[in-house]
Design a protein that fits this description.
By secondary structure, the chain is mainly beta. Helix content is about 15%, strand content about 40%. It has helices at about 15-25, 80-90; strands at about 10, 30-35, 40-45, 45-50, 75-80, 95-105, 110-120, 125-135. The strands form 2 sheets. The chain has a 4-stranded mixed beta sheet with strand order 1-4-3-2, with helices on one face. Strand 2 and strand 3 (about 40-45) form a beta hairpin.
Length: about 150
Amino acid sequence: MPNVLVPEFSVRDCDVSRDFYCNILGFNVRYARPEEGFCYLEREGAELMLDQIGLGRDFDDHMPKQYPFGRGVNLQILVSDVTSLANSCAVAGVELYLPLEERWYRKDQKKVGNKQFVVADPDGYLLRFFEDMGTRPYGDHRKGVCHRQEAKP
């Protein structure tokens, strides 16, 4: 069964973006239409599409006008080994937008834990990769449970 939601990112250069997603972030190309600057990517069940602006079909009235593209959007992507993925970014010299951290979020009467980091792709789309750390009771105030991350200016 196909994924019920697959985002499509408008990108400046599909080859550059595909290289970033595949060689650094571990995505695989499911299929591509190079003549249209398009590729469909997958990693551990997460799927997304890349479409180069100016090739193939564009939605001219809705194209990003300036970097960073996708302002206000960040995608959360579950992975099996978030630490190795963060290390892959470091080895490639890719700066993390938000460094690897452990965070606990209230969900109803419990807390759910994420080990996570955020990275921007070559066009500025934010990707939050995370590994599930399980749950805790809501009243659990162990170190690191209740701190707030200050917003970046």
